[in-house]
Design goal:
Low-confidence stretches: 93-102
Largest sheet: 7 strands, mixed
Strand content: 5-15%
Number of domains: 3
CATH superfamily of the largest domain: Type I PLP-dependent aspartate aminotransferase-like (Major domain)
CATH class of the largest domain: Alpha Beta
Shape: globular
């Protein structure tokens, strides 16, 4: 007959082999739960490894791993030639009874602080919690196109490298990392730069890059110029540092540089924020003529240009126009970009390219925000750049996204030919749809929601002169595009009373 302990373990140990959690971890958690509940008390001997392996039909090495895990966490003590015995870890923290709270309230955490603090209107979340099957976003990649199994192999291989462990234990790194050198090589090859690691700072995201740059660059009441429709996330960051945001007219050639020259004088502008490659949200490209005019004006008026190149890699036709930063000889341009949008979001990274003096100061801020960084991610990305894997993934995904863009244009032509104007961009994951005649976009979003389609407020742009949507299509396959456009048409007809 089995002992009482064996009978208990046979009853509580249940595991699945076809899950991402290892079997020994599943069993360890179940034994810990039994100890916490008092089913296995202090001093009880657990079955030997051979006995437990036969009892629950697993390999003996798996049982050894279970006991080692329990010992590492302090739940058992393994005594050689004697056995494995349950111990209850010493409680490190004492519970404090909140005598001022009503009965049974001592285990609830208070909702309000007992002190004042500064809340920020500018950083209020723009996320809308609407549960619908279909959503139109502002142009995000499709996670389903990412090679999951390849990423797990790359990540696992990187974790096993001794060089990664040595970087974790490194106190100070006076030299530039392999990742920084590889990223410089990649940017020099793809964007026409001639930079060294001293001109580069790697961050977690474009938003982090812009936040650090704005902390260095902008003082309260400094004038920051943006397009009259602009990136709401960037505007939030500028407002948070106290900038005075002024808007500049835009057309199909991008920002109106003549307007800036006529309306502002030398040293009255701190910086101009521009998405030169594809303006957010309209997708219009800043023309070569206006790029040169903006560079000349920045030199003359002594302001900085923040060039946000968020979707440079998604170029479907022709060659992408090189960044302004690649031809900036006066040190006026701060270039922000992304790497890894063909990867999972956790493998995406941001970077800043700028003159050495600014990068040195920016890295001081980065040390406070993210001193450790992500060593594994950097090691993995440097290898993917070196092996050319990033180029292959981008080219592969571009074929899919181009097909989706073209299919969306066909669907719009069929359903909205008479009521929507758009210009198919040469790249990017979004289209700028202008409704003519104008309608209430808020009503359109409400009608779409009734039909299981979500249109977030962050993609709706409406004033007396504009009635448009930034329609992100990257996350939708061709079948989903047809469904979404059909639902949008039903919502549109309901708004105009057809």
């Amino acid at each position: 007959m089995n002992s009482p302990v064996e009978a208990l373990l046979k009853q509580i140990i249940l595991f699945e082999k076809n899950t991402s959690t290892a079997v020994f971890i599943q069993i360890s958690h179940q034994i810990i739960d039994a100890i916490q509940r008092g089913y296995l008390t202090q001093g009880i001997a657990l079955p030997g490894t051979r006995s437990l392996s036969q009892l629950v039909q697993i390999h003996r090495n798996t049982v050894v791993a279970v006991y080692d895990e329990l010992a590492a966490q302090g739940w058992v003590e393994i005594i050689p030639n004697k056995g494995t015995f349950v111990i209850v870890p010493e409680q490190k923290t004492a519970s404090i009874k909140a005598i001022t709270y009503p009965e049974n309230r001592d285990k609830e955490y208070t909702e309000k602080t007992g002190f004042d603090f500064k809340s920020s209107f500018h950083l209020a979340s723009t996320v809308e919690k609407r549960q619908t099957k279909y959503t139109i976003n502002d142009g995000q990649p499709d996670l389903r196109l990412h090679p999951t199994h390849q990423f797990s192999k790359w990540y696992s291989a990187t974790m096993k490298r001794k060089a990664v462990l040595s970087k974790w234990n490194q106190i100070e790194n006076s030299n530039y990392s392999t990742y920084e050198k590889q990223l410089c090589n990649y940017l020099n090859a793809t964007r026409g730069f001639h930079i060294d690691p001293k001109n580069l700072m790697s961050t977690r995201s474009t938003e982090m890059s812009l936040y650090i740059v704005s902390q260095l660059l902008v003082k309260p009441k400094d004038v920051v110029l943006v397009g009259n429709w602009s990136n709401y996330a960037a505007n939030m960051i500028f407002q948070q540092v106290g900038a005075t945001i002024r808007t500049v007219p835009i057309d199909e050639d991008g920002l109106d540089i003549d307007f800036i020259r006529k309306q502002y004088s030398k040293k009255s502008i701190r910086c101009v924020y521009v998405c030169a490659h594809r303006h957010y949200p309209t997708t219009w490209t800043l023309s070569a003529k206006r790029r040169l005019e903006l560079l000349e004006l920045a030199k003359e008026y002594e302001f900085a240009i923040i060039e946000d190149d968020f979707d440079y890699d998604f170029q479907f036709e022709g060659s992408a126009m090189l960044p302004m930063a690649s031809s900036d000889s006066n040190g006026n341009v701060i270039y922000l970009g992304k790497l890894g949008q063909s990867f999972f979001p956790s493998f995406q990274t941001g970077f800043v390219v700028a003159p050495t003096t600014l990068i040195q100061e920016a890295k001081n801020y980065l040390q406070m925000l993210d001193k450790q960084g992500d060593v594994i991610q950097e090691q993995m990305l440097s290898e993917l750049i070196h092996e050319g894997e990033i180029h292959r993934l981008i080219k592969k995904n571009i074929i899919n996204y181009k097909q989706r863009r073209d299919h969306l244009s066909q669907m719009l032509e069929y359903y909205f030919k008479e009521t929507v104007r758009w210009k198919t961009p040469s790249g990017g994951l979004a289209l700028w749809l202008e409704f003519e005649p104008k309608i209430s976009l808020v009503q359109l979003a409400d009608e779409a929601y009734k039909n299981d389609l979500s249109l977030p407020k962050t993609i709706l742009y409406q004033d007396k002169n504009t009635c448009a949507i930034r329609f992100g299509f990257g996350h939708l396959n061709e079948d989903e595009i047809e469904i979404v456009i059909n639902k949008l048409k039903i919502a549109y007809d309901a708004v105009v009373g057809k």
